[in-house]
Amino acid sequence: MNLEGALGQLLALAVALLGAPLLSGWVSQCRAWLQNRRAPPLAMPFRTLHKLFWKESVVAHGASPMFRIAPYVVFACMALACMIVPMLSTNLPLAPAADAIALVGLFGVARLFISLAAMDIGTAFGSLGARREMLVGFLAEPAFLMVLFTASLISSSTSLATTVSALAHREFAILPSLAFAGLAFTMVSLAENARVPVDNPATHLELTMIHEALILEYSGRHLALMEWAASLKLFAYSCAGLAIFFPWGIAEARDHAALLWALPALVAKLAVGGFVLALIETILAKMRVFRVPEFLAAAFLLGVLALLVHLLLGA
Q1: 115: which of 19, 130, 250, 295 fits an S-S bond (Cβ 3.0–4.6 Å)?
Q2: pLDDT in tens, 63-116
Q3: Do 20 and 229 contact (CB within 8 A), yes or no?
Q4: Three-state SS annotation for the chain
Q5: What is the pLDDT of residues 236-271, one digit of tens each?
Q6: Distance CA 190, CA 192 (A)
Q7: In b/e form, how buried is each residue of 28-44, taking b as 16+ CB within 10 angstroms?
């Protein structure tokens, strides 16, 4: 591992840790503006995290060690996922060992721990949220893999850094396979990050919530880590989508001049993406839980179509 690559990896981690709460705050601001409401401050997620870290964590007497270590495992998985995704540069020391399949595996490990922790206390809402979370993950992961396989076939590699480099050097063209994959990725991203129409992050209605039911029993620093991990997951998905479908602006290895413009380009793309996400959540209504499998089945079908279009037409 060279020094330049290690510094770039640490810079990407720092950008993710600071940028993830800001992205969540930006989406909340855009939603408030679009709904003609008074918008919260952009730094509101940081204030919430600061308040939670200083509060005492209350743990049930019957909680096992799984309940206590789950927030740290989930946060570590999301932080590592952000380090895998090439958001600023393709010069990532972890790129040869961690590819697109490893990224899906990290999301799966985090889902497993947060679901087990939700069931550990034995409350009805925690078990309900865990079952729904596993159902969403069971249906979303194959669709996400189809999207990643489509991009990997274009670049002949499952490494995200190689995929980004190959797509960035192609002539600008709207490929039918990437168009189908983009729609599938958008649907999967909404489901995996508990956004409308699959879930509403702003509600605490017990019979409809998914993500909030998983962390209902957490408090203090444990809840802060869970909330921060949720922001990191949204940031990782956003950066992965931008890297695959809008790879322009990401610096190549040892391209110091391009690296200076990589961060402003990332901020601009995330600002536009956050506004589009808020627009989607404003236009669409939350669907019933029983319609979620149909929604994710459509995403999987679009991912398969993207793969078949590339294999049959080469476009």
Answers
A1: 130
A2: 899 999 999 999 999 999 999 898 888 887 877 777 888 999 999 999 999 999
A3: no
A4: CCHHHHHHHHHHHHHHHHHHHHHHHHHHHHHHHHCCCCCCCCCHHHHHHHHHHCCCCCCCCCCCHHHHHHHHHHHHHHHHHHHHCCCCECCCCCCCCCCHHHHHHHHHHHHHHHHHHHHHCCCHHHHHHHHHHHHHHHHHHHHHHHHHHHHHHHHCCCCHHHHHHHHHCCCCCCCHHHHHHHHHHHHHHHHHCCCCCCCCCCCCCCCCCCHHHHCCCCCHHHHHHHHHHHHHHHHHHHHHHHHHHCCCCCECCCCHHHHHHHHHHHHHHHHHHHHHHHHHHHHCCCCCHHHHHHHHHHHHHHHHHHHHHHHHHCC
A5: 999 999 999 998 888 876 666 777 788 999 999 999
A6: 6
A7: bbbbeeeeeeebeeeee
Q: What is the pLDDT averaged over residues 45-54?
A: 95
pLDDT at 315 over 70: no
Contact 149, 111 (CB under 8 A): no
234 contacts: CB under 8 Å, gap ≥ 6: 20, 23, 24, 27, 193
Q: What is the pTM of this model?
A: 0.95
Query: Rounded distance, CA 222 to CA 216, Å?
Result: 11
Tell me which residue has tokens 């991203």.
189
- Asked if residues 4 and 251 have their Cβ atoms less than 8 Å apart, the reply is no
Residue 89, beta-bridge partner list: 251
Q: Which pLDDT score is estimated for 206?
A: 64
**Across 137-148, average pLDDT:** 94
The answer to whether 292 touches 191, Cβ cutoff 8 Å, is yes
Is the distance from CB of 86 to CB of 160 less than 8 angstroms? Answer: yes
Q: What are phi and psi of 89, to 5 degrees?
A: -150, 155
> Smallest Cα–Cα separation from 167: which of 102, 61, 258, 243?
243
pLDDT tens track for 1-29: 567 677 778 888 999 999 999 999 999 99
